[in-house]
Design brief:
With about 130 residues, the chain is mainly alpha-helical. It has a domain at about 40-115. It has helices at about 10-30, 40-75, 85-115. The longest helix has about 35 residues, at about 40-75. The termini are far apart. This is ESX-1 secretion-associated protein. It comes from Kocuria turfanensis.
Length: about 130
């Protein structure tokens, strides 16, 4: 892990690291949980559809575009072939992943809609 005061990595790399840590924390928070009520899942899905779905779609498209623009702003070399061809292939794969992320967003939104009216009775109400 990096110290925020001395971390000189680009902001986009640090933010991607933060996203990784957030997903990892969700995994840890849910691994041994007995149950998750619909209102809790609704809130989780609301954040994940935006972050992992629509937000990831936008971020990945922007990353792909940035990669392609780097060919014009940097003196790029590639030990495995043409920098232009490999960057274009990588950008195409990133954009395909972005399309899948958009689908994730739509699926999570539909799942959220399906449980939007659910609640539960607390033990003292039973």
């Amino acid at each position: 892990m990096y110290d925020n005061d001395t971390d000189d990595r680009p902001l986009v790399v640090r933010e991607a690291d933060t996203a990784y840590e957030a997903v990892r924390a969700i995994n840890h928070a849910t691994i041994n949980v007995a149950s998750l009520s619909a209102p809790v899942v609704y809130d989780v899905l609301g954040n994940l559809k935006t972050a992992a779905g629509y937000g990831m779609h936008q971020a990945l498209n922007q990353v792909a575009g940035g990669l392609m623009r780097s060919l014009e702003t940097h003196d790029v070399y590639d030990h495995n072939g043409s920098p232009t061809e490999n960057a274009a292939a990588a950008a195409a794969l990133i954009r395909e992943a972005a399309r899948h992320a958009a689908k994730i967003g739509a699926l999570l939104e539909e799942a959220q809609s399906r449980i939007s009216s659910q609640g539960y009775n607390s033990p003292e109400e039973s």
